[in-house]
Amino acid sequence: MERFEADKARALGDADSSRKGSIDEAIVPLLKHINSMPAYYTTSSCSGRISVYCPGQNLKKGCRWLMTSHESVLVQAVQAALVNLLPDDEGYVWFKFEPFVLHLMCRTLEDAQHMLQLAIGSGFRNSGVTLGKKGRILLAIRSTHCLQAPVAHN
Question: How far from 104 is each of 9, 34, 57, 98, 142, CA to CA, in Å?
Fold first, then answer.
């Protein structure tokens, strides 16, 4: 078995190691389609995320998430999240929208270039290819469309 095929079988057989612990339902059909192609497999993905949080020392540690959703939310859900503020939550409370992102491994540079052209042509202009030390070819499909704004001050 070729190394790419072995890596693909291993990656698709592993348990989901994301913080959320599951694949976003909205993009499961897309991931299944991509993973059915012999030249590609997905390594991580997010259908997009909306969150409300209080920052800590840095965004990864000490941050307190008041709301997180991988689906559309109504203004009322954001307002309801603000009810969960604690007296210790000092400073601004942030609303953040993060767009769809997809990482996939590609068998060849030509395969990566083909998928990259499709991604950029579909509006994902922040996409690109990374070549790993062991010859692995990673395509990141990303958009520049994001939004972050303060929604409250405590």
Answer: 14, 9, 32, 19, 12
> Per the structure block, which two tokens stand in for 84?
């969960």
CA 34 to chain centre: 16
pLDDT per residue of the chain (154 residues) written in tens, 0 to 9? 589 999 999 988 876 666 666 678 888 999 999 999 999 999 989 888 999 998 875 556 678 889 999 888 999 999 999 888 887 777 889 999 999 999 999 999 999 999 999 999 999 999 999 999 888 999 999 998 899 999 988 7
64-69, strands of its sheet edge to edge:
64-69, 49-54, 92-98, 147-153
